[in-house]
Amino acid sequence: xxxxxxxxxxxxxxxxxxxxxxxxxxxxxxxxxxxxxxxxxxxxxxxxxxxxxxxxxxxxxxxxxxxxxxxxxxxxxxxxxxxxxxxxxxxxxxxxxxxxxxxxxxxxxxxxxxxxxxxxxxxxxxxxxxxxxxxxxxxxxxxxxxxxxxxxxxxxxxxxxxxxxxxxxxxxxxxxxxxxxxxxxxxxxxxxxxxxxxxxxxxxxxxxxxxxxxxxxxxxxxxxxxxxxxxxxxxxxxxxxxxxxxxxxxxxxxxxxxxxxxxxxxxxxxxxxxxxxxxxxxxxxxxxxxxxxxxxxxxxxxxxxxxxxxxxxxxxxxxxxxxxxxxxxxxxxxxxxxxxxxxxxxxxxxxxxxxxxxxxxxxxxxxxxxxxxxxxxxxxxxxxxxxxxxxxxxxxxxxxxxxxxxxxxxxxxxxxxx
Length: 418
Description:
Helix content: 25-40%
Radius of gyration: 23 Å
Shape: globular
Number of strands: 14
Strand content: 15-25%
CATH superfamily of the largest domain: Periplasmic binding protein-like II
Keywords: Signal, Sugar transport, Transport
CATH class of the largest domain: Alpha Beta
Mean pLDDT: 92
Largest sheet: 7 strands, mixed
Pfam family, one: SBP_bac_1
Protein name: Sugar transporter
InterPro entries: SBP
Family: Belongs to the bacterial solute-binding protein 1 family.
Number of helices: 17
Distance between the termini: 44 Å
């Protein structure tokens, strides 16, 4: 849900707000990203926080994702005290900001005040760098399976599959006549990552001998097993082998009514129903199945963390804001308002009444993030994983293609050819 370009509850006078009666409040500036929270949530939080903290006024400013990396890096270098005290960043962006320098170490507060042991790993791990916690988890979102209830009923499937084996069998049963068992594009590499993690592999690994020495690992036996499962699942539909899930947008394909399943965030259901109102009430959700019935499959966890600039002149105020936003009260409110996953698995019951969010929360308990290298963005910029996937799906030798992709990942992460 889009936010206004700027939301502020403060009137700034010389850097602080002057309240009736002559009481001064200091201002804490918070950057939130567009779409992360509704205006109504921001208003509720601001009012509630200021009631509980009579010495702080909040100045919440909404930022566009486009160009935000440059803007954050500039803010971290600022020494004039005019920058924000709290910044929302994508969970996988934290490492690059740490490497640049300028982030405040929040390890002590995380252990003492924030309950870090309960955080979702897919949010907590990217916020940790070289043994210190710089990013504080705010919210998570991850993929689930969205399915057409009518097509499941037509195929005689009475409950969603809970294991990979059940999932393949059900999808094969659904893939009949003019119906597709699943629409899975050939380059949906986030989904592939989950299958690789389930097998005990990874996209890249950091060597034990040298911190910061990352090497591509798509060629390992575990990663190849993940690709093999992806290949078998992808074949049970007519997804393109040489394109990702946005070319064409998979929600539009699903909306035609002849696709039984897609793998997407629950919010895609809104787009599907907008394109085909006849599907309203006919969509279901379940976590991506894992190898065992009692453990959902691993999924990439997207979402946001909070960071604090080292050069901020109000670390205490910044910590107070983060402590509130990452705490139970406002986590519950945000999750219910935005259909997000709370930052702690034990808070998942907050969305138990929302089918899509509940499926997402179940999967998030086994969530992961991309390799925590500050140079991972370079890999995604010209993503060799996508080319590798297409090559395999079009008949290439998996081991040979994986080795080539691993070499490219290693080169991008700054080590050189394997």
